[in-house]
Amino acid sequence: MATLSLSIQSERTFLRQLHKYYDGLHNFTQQHFKTLINNIKSKNNNRQNIMNITVSIDGTWKRRGHVSNYGIVYIIDVQSGLCIDYEVMSLLCEVCNFKKSKLSPSQFTNWYKKHQLFCPKNYDGTSKSMEKEGTVRLFQRSIVNVLRYTHMLCDGDASAFEAIKHYYVKQSQQQQVHLKSDTSTSTKEQSDLKHGEIEDHDVEEEQEEEYDAGVEEEQEEEHDDVEEEQKYQSVDSSNNLIVIKEDCINHVSKRVMKYLLEMKRQKTRRVSFSKEVSTSKKQLSKQQLLDDNKRWGGGPGRMTNNMMKKLSNGYGLAVRQASALAAGKEVNEALDIMQQFTRAAFYHYLKTKDGNKEEQHQYCPKTSNTWCFYHQQKMLSSRNNTNIRKKNDRNFLDPIFRDILQPLIDKLTSKELLRRCLRGITQNSNESLNSIVW
């Protein structure tokens, strides 16, 4: 700047100009989001009414390890892949910290009253809970944007989902309470007016009996039926307003490797034992053995790193293939397909105690283009083909691993989990956006 004979602006002037540009950029972003939402609604021919959409929500932080002072929560429309809203979370205001060190408590209080509207600090919780709070704020703005986020794609964080699962149900109940209070107020006013009119007239001596007992009973029954029908309708409408959770299949497939690494850490832990050496005892340690008196890995039929990758990649591939194959089918039929594919990804590599090949490969596909070597050879033998090769049992795990992996298999092949993976959606859009923010 000095070489060009230009004066250098002060820090205060620079920050004022920076905030001016930030405010302009923020206003432009909000206007751009409105345009995107209008385009999404027009493509679905739903410009006037509240539109139900599936969204992908994910949080990102400036620093790893949930110790960051700043975080952002993005919400992306799954159908279009466009970001339609975001929330910036801040635990820190540098101006406030600077003023606290310079001003007395009373002076800071007076100064903060003016600064509070412009203070960037908008959250007092922990860094980890930023995603939960940001998700709640985004859902609160959904109705303002004439949208309803009925399906939420997330990475397995249950806290954020549980915070907004019944958000629309509670909002609907609050609206009904307000409507009832308004109705009761108007009814009370009408009754007061009628009471004033009745006082001006003489009270009738005899009350006319217009309805029979049978007619009254019929009216009571009809009233009860109407109340019961309204009750069921309110329950159905509440169920329709509950947010449905869907899981990213990339994050689900990572659970296999995470479980296997944890089991490896537990099963390869060294155990101590004592050994008598002459007149003294010496404490030694050795690697832990499984129930079949063999180590976790290191040989044929054991859990090597290569086998762990096979199980993890095989499960992820099974979920993707099954979700594509189950598209357009009924829910129960689609879940049966996904359950068979995911079970095959595990049991294909697990030998049985009695060496029963049929039981080991019972979930593997039996079609002509099957990837299962056992069923391929079985088809070739039925055709009297001479090019039959035997699969080496070294590529399969010993029966002991059936018991070890059974809790993992039951959890990752349950229909409750697979129902959330039916559409085979990923959070790649969120991850791509997060990578260019920081």
Q: Could you characterize the architecture of this molecule?
A:
This protein is an alpha/beta fold. It folds into two domains: about 15-90 and about 125-170, 2-Layer Sandwich (Nucleotidyltransferase, domain 5); about 250-435, no CATH class. About 55% of the residues lie in helices and about 15% in strands. It is built from 15 helices and seven strands.
Strand order, main sheet: write it out: 3-2-1-4-5
Main β-sheet description = 5 strands, mixed
Strand tally is 7
When the domains are counted, the total is 2
Radius of gyration: 33 Å
**How many H/I helices?**
15
Short description:
The chain is 53% helix and 13% strand.
Labels describing this entry:
438 residues, alpha/beta, Nucleotidyltransferase, domain 5, two-stranded antiparallel sheet, 7 strands
Write the layout of secondary structure elements.
Blueprint: H1 11-43, E1 51-61, E2 70-77, E3 83-90, H2 94-102, H3 105-115, H4 130-140, E4 147-154, H5 158-164, H6 167-199, H7 213-241, E5 244-247, H8 249-267, E6 270-277, E7 280-287, H9 305-325, H10 331-347, H11 357-360, H12 373-382, H13 400-412, H14 415-419, H15 428-437
Parallel strand pairs: 1-4, 4-5
Antiparallel strand pairs: 1-2, 2-3, 6-7
Helix pairs in contact: 4-5, 8-9, 9-10
